[in-house]
Design a protein that fits this description.
This protein has 197 residues and is an all-alpha fold. It has eight helices and no strands. The longest helix has 31 residues, at 166-196.
């Protein structure tokens, strides 16, 4: 499971660094950090700042190599953490999370904000919403609004400018197919689940 987890993490960084779209929750957090430091991700990143673009992959390669000498000898003992009841683990994890949110700026507001978003994430998970999708939406929403307004200004308010590019139309078709097929297969699964119950 850990090998699969490590493989997925590196894969989500590719769309982030190449086209500026996070492929998962981990990449979305990295996007926020990079934007905070004034780094614009996208195709120009590899030309303008190659040392920054290749640094995550180099760091992961070194980390995976060091894991051979650290994780393998300790795997037997570290695996015992999984048998500890959530009743004992949850308070410890929540405490460390709140302390980490506080010490970054020494503001109590940051701790309350982390607690509120933790509750929102818990409710989202319990109600079937994917936290990663919500996080990506929160990050990409302002960017979508920004470039949408720029496009309208350049076209003098003509909404059809969004469909004036061949590449853009291909992306629109892919978007509608992705959403449509997801809804279609989701609807097909529900009768099967009801029949099994």
């Amino acid at each position: 499971p850990e090998s699969a987890n490590n493989g997925v993490t590196s894969g989500t960084l590719i769309p982030l660094l190449v086209i500026g779209i996070p492929g998962g929750a981990t990449a979305a957090i990295m996007l926020v950090v990079l934007q905070y430091h004034g780094v614009t991700v996208g195709p120009d990143l590899f030309n303008d700042s190659p040392q920054l673009a290749y640094a995550p992959f180099t760091a992961m390669a070194v980390t995976y190599f060091l894991m051979i000498f650290t994780i393998l000898p300790l795997a037997r003992y570290m695996s015992k953490v999984t048998v500890v009841s959530t009743t004992y683990m949850a308070p410890v994890i929540i405490s460390f999370t709140l302390v980490g949110a506080f010490v970054s700026r020494d503001y109590m507001f940051d701790m309350y904000l982390a607690l509120v978003f933790g509750v929102i994430g818990y409710i989202a998970r319990k109600t079937g919403y994917h936290v990663a999708a919500i996080l990506i939406g929160v990050i990409l929403g302002p960017l979508l609004e920004k470039y949408f307004l720029i496009a309208l200004q350049m076209s003098q308010g003509d909404i059809m400018v969004l469909f004036s590019s061949k590449l853009g139309n291909v992306l629109w078709v892919g978007l509608f197919l992705s959403v449509g097929l997801s809804l279609y297969f989701e609807k097909r699964k529900k009768p099967g689940k009801a029949a099994d119950g």
